[in-house]
Specification:
Radius of gyration: 22 Å
Number of strands: 13
CATH superfamily of the largest domain: Spore Coat Polysaccharide Biosynthesis Protein SpsA, Chain A
Number of helices: 13
Distance between the termini: 52 Å
CATH class of the largest domain: Alpha Beta
Shape: globular
Oligomer: single chain
Largest sheet: 9 strands, mixed
Structural class: alpha/beta
Order of helices and strands: HHHHEHEHEHEEHEEEEEHHEEEHHH
Helix content: 40-55%
CATH architecture of the largest domain: Alpha-Beta Complex
């Protein structure tokens, strides 16, 4: 059951002119009396600086008081030997959108760490260097814990080679709040992304399972917020209350399939993930990309292939993974194994790590590879 503020929110999402007229006519205090404070603060976030400017102006005229309670969103950035030009773009794009930014470095060299430390000095960013590569999940969990202790209500995860659009955070929050107001348990909401290295490339980043196949949603369709099986970690917004129920990321996976495992764990508890078509982000994809029989294959280095196959096979054996996903993913992993074995380089080292990953996935041997 939606409260009055949430009902008003749903009515006004596409009717800013009507809301603007109400603010001028009856002022903040009367509007707050008419609609509860929670719903009104949701409106404030969704309409962003525009409504804040109106209310601050009314406050100056003694007709209203400024809003003092906004959802706190922390941006979490995990770095590992980052290319500074890309990381700087990410940080500059994130600064206007988030109440705090937390960077956790996973064992970069001293020069790379110094570049980050120098940048942080002039900005409201917290920076932590772990000193060694503990894996993306451990770095994310460290950041999430710090964000929670700082009072953050939401987090947005970022890879170091992603750049959010100027209104990405508010559009993700808007979608999250809207779906919650409709009575749904929201796991994560993620943006529509395009290839940082090939801006002209058309991607369909939102997928759902139909039968044994992954079906890609056309982001140019009429529906803006679409249910998905999962979203990629980079750019996704998650509430702290969801993390409290679902739990943190699995650190023993180290890197690949961390986001997918968390999404299916959340799904088993009744949570739903969504893709938001008009929230956009640039994102780096792969080291080698080859198109085979109409399918794009992303190739990485042999270590990454080890983690991909180990974690994919291990995940397929977990009880909370739907059977249709297990069957479909077994086929997709087999197809990808053949392509990686034949085409990824260097051949010898790649084959060795592929077979090692398969063996460790079948035996449940997780953690950082030796």
């Amino acid at each position: 059951m939606m409260n009055r503020g949430e009902q008003f929110l749903c009515i006004c999402l596409d009717k800013w002119g009507y809301l603007e007229e109400m603010i001028y006519k009856i002022g903040y205090e009367q509007l707050q009396d008419k609609f509860d404070i929670i719903g009104f603060n949701l409106l404030s976030i969704i309409f962003g600086n525009t409504i804040s400017a109106h209310l601050n102006f009314l406050s100056y005229l003694n007709y209203a008081k400024p809003i003092v309670s906004f959802p706190k969103i922390a941006a979490i950035v995990v770095t590992y030997h980052p290319q500074w030009s890309e990381l700087e773009k990410l940080l500059l794009a994130a600064l206007p959108q988030f109440t705090q930014i937390i960077i956790v470095d996973n064992g970069s060299n001293p020069d790379e760490i110094q570049l980050i430390a120098d940048f942080v000095k002039g900005h409201p960013i917290r920076f932590y260097a772990l000193g060694e590569n503990l894996g993306v999940a451990a770095a994310q969990n460290t950041s999430i814990t710090i964000a929670k202790e700082s009072g953050a209500q939401y987090i947005v995860l970022f890879d170091q080679d992603s750049v959010p659009g100027s209104d990405m955070a508010v559009k993700l929050l808007q979608a999250h709040l809207l779906k919650e107001a409709q009575g749904l348990k929201v796991a994560a909401v993620g943006p529509n992304y395009f290839n940082l290295n090939r801006a002209d490339e058309t991607l369909k980043p939102f997928v759902n399972i139909q039968g044994f196949s992954l079906v890609h949603h056309d982001v140019r369709g009429t529906e803006n917020i679409v249910p998905v099986s999962h979203v990629i970690a980079s750019g996704c917004l998650i509430s702290m209350k969801c993390i409290d129920i679902v739990g943190l990321m699995r650190e023993d996976l180290f890197i690949d399939f961390v986001d997918l495992e968390w999404a299916y764990r959340a799904k088993s508890l009744g949570f739903v993930s969504f893709g938001v078509c008009d929230a956009v982000m640039q994102h780096g994809l792969g080291e080698q990309r080859i198109r085979i029989l109409g399918k794009n294959f992303l190739f990485h280095n042999p270590i990454r292939h080890y983690y991909q196959f180990r974690n994919g096979i291990w995940l397929n054996r977990q009880s909370y993974i739907p059977m249709r996903h297990r069957i479909g993913e077994s086929f997709r992993l087999s197809r990808r194994f053949i392509c990686c074995a034949l085409l990824a380089r260097p051949y010898g080292e790649n084959l060795r790590m592929l077979f090692k990953g398969v063996l460790h996935g079948l035996t449940g041997r997780l953690g950082k590879v030796k």
